[in-house]
Design a protein that fits this description.
Helix content: 55-70%
Strand content: under 5%
Order of helices and strands: HHHHHHHHHHHHH
Structural class: mainly alpha
Radius of gyration: 29 Å
Number of helices: 13
Shape: globular
Length: 297
């Protein structure tokens, strides 16, 4: 006997899948409130630069009768700052760049090395030592000024750039920053694979730790460079007028009984230009590095 066949009328067709509806997420695009807040923050951030330019482009009477229209004396005021023999502008600019670059490179290297040890190497007392390093950030810098000055005076380093570079070669904040980043950015499986391949601890750090720490190291280098560039307290104490950094040199513009704020603010803007140039050239790489470090593959 042949198997019974089903007629088309009695066959039941499979139900077609229902089309999926796209779900719209409310609030995915920022509204005018967000743009308004961001615009206000940008305007507030740019206002000090604009105000400094307004005063720096005027004359000695501009600070008493300020105007929202820039004057035409900014170049003359800037040349006055540059050509002032008491300021020694070019030497101060080189000292600031030289010391800030060395401090940034040193802090990044030693902080990454220490952060790698605290994050990925297991040793006795590691957590206690890390807590001690973090606790040093609570100690005010002013407490170490007198012993530091006595030390560098005995060494004969007062008045030299080395006196501001050596105390800043390491950073407790940098160690904490790199430790927290490396704990999350580097999985332990990479370390085990490197050990299986016969790599030493330091080679593992160079081949695995440093590439993974690049985004956080870039942030740390930028912030360290800016803080070293703007540092005034310790350089003002240990340096002299013949070998100053830029903030110390610009402070000499206010040493007279009459302070011409148009000259002072023109000098302040000149000291800010290198930092703005640094942000322009490194901002894109910095943001891309942060996004690359934030995305887990």
């Amino acid at each position: 006997m042949s198997a019974p066949t089903m007629s088309p009328s009695t066959a039941t067709a499979a139900p077609a899948p229902a089309p999926r509806r796209r779900r719209t997420v409310r609030g995915s695009r920022p509204g005018w409130v967000v743009y308004g807040v961001l615009g206000a923050m940008i305007a507030g951030s740019l206002f000090p630069f604009w105000w400094s330019f307004l005063i720096g482009s005027g004359d000695a009477q501009t600070i008493r009768n300020p105007s929202w229209i820039p004057g035409g004396n900014f170049i003359d005021n800037a040349l006055t700052v540059i050509n002032d023999p008491a300021v020694n502008f070019w030497l101060a600019l080189w000292n600031s760049f030289y010391s800030s670059a060395l401090i940034a490179l040193s802090v990044v290297f030693f902080s990454t090395l220490a952060g790698w040890a605290f994050a990925k190497l297991k040793f006795r007392g590691g957590n206690v030592l890390l807590i001690f390093v973090i606790a040093t950030m609570a100690v005010p810098t002013q407490l170490g000024v007198v012993p530091l000055y006595i030390l560098f005076s005995d060494l004969g380093w007062t008045g030299t750039i080395g006196a501001i570079i050596v105390p800043a070669l390491t950073s407790a904040f940098g160690v904490f920053w790199m430790t927290q980043y490396l704990r999350q950015a580097v999985p332990d499986e990479l370390l085990e694979a490197a050990r299986v391949d016969g790599a030493s601890s330091f080679r593992t750090f160079l081949t695995v730790g440093l590439p993974a720490a690049r985004p956080a190291a870039a942030m740390l280098a930028l912030f360290t460079f800016i803080s070293s560039w703007n540092n005034f307290f310790w350089p003002f104490i240990v340096l002299d007028r013949q070998n100053p950094t830029l903030p110390v040199a610009l402070s000499l513009l206010q040493s007279n009984h009459f302070v011409d704020y148009s000259i002072v603010l023109a000098g302040v803007l000149l000291s800010t230009i290198p930092l703005l140039v640094l942000f322009v050239f490194t901002g894109k790489q910095l943001v891309s590095g942060i996004m690359a470090g934030a995305v887990k593959g």
